[in-house]
Design a protein that fits this description.
It contains nine helices and twelve strands. By secondary structure, it is α/β, with parallel strands linked by helices. The strands form two sheets. The chain has a seven-stranded parallel β-sheet, sandwiched between helices.
Length: 336
Amino acid sequence: MPKPVILVVAPMPVFPTNSGSRRRLLATCEFLKNSGFDIDFAYLAHEDQIYHRFGKIAPTDMEEMQEYFRNVWLIELNQPIKLKTGASAFELDDWCPQELCDFVAWYFQQAWAGSAILVNYVFLSACLLRTPPGVLRVIDTHDRFSDRRNQYLPFRLAPNFFYTNAENEREGLSRADIVVAIQPAERDYFESLTGKEVALLMPDIPPARPFSRPCKLQAIGFMGHGNDANLVSISRFASAWRQRWQLGLPKLLIAGEICNSLPSDMGPGIQMLGYVRQIADFFDAVDIVVAPMLMGTGLKLKVVEALAYGKPVVGTGVAFEGLSAISPDHCLPSIS
């Protein structure tokens, strides 16, 4: 008996799995596979476009995706998606291009098409309107976007990612039969917003190593993708660390794509590792992990991964949102 097929739509590729959003996407696909689904995957080349606009090459492994999924499509964009708006919020469908909606309509006209669709992020929800009756429609939210802009105000920054208001987010979520949240607080918020039950799918990251308490602190570490939340947070923390650092104190090692958005020389006491191919190599190099997050929504997978690799983590309350943290070291109000 053939397996049921689900079409997964995302604005980022799955491989290489080098960011929190990609790790969430892969974890969701693993859950679907373990639940008995075959998966067709449609990658809307939005993240690819963003890399190009900043003069960078997007890390995308189409060959590995073709091996992992039943079918894979790359949906190119005719016009760039705007990263900023002068309004107080993006309109709900500003980031959902016609090319994606047309692809979804075409896909479900094919004889081999799936019976369900899962869309990553509410801002792509317009394509759900192009599915025929009887297709199960799912949104994996990843993040809360209502009033997300307010997080940037204390830093006098304009966000480079989607944000909207509660009315738009409610409308987008109403297009789905099932809404999935990544952590309990956002599940509760979406339920209050929609008046409907919201499913909770937290990432299942098994322990990779037993917990180890360092005998001596020689290096503390931060690894992250090059998004706004990481850039704001580690920039502030690194500045404070540099000002107070002296010989004999541990070094701060910064790894991941975030290094491309930071100066190559961050000053004394700070070492830039750049992109690390094997995540285990990073955790081998540090004694503890810091998560000085000052903003952000969703679940901070960098924290979950560090704990899975047996590393002590010190972080702000923002970094541990959704993880039911009780230790004072996991609920710090600021980086100072």
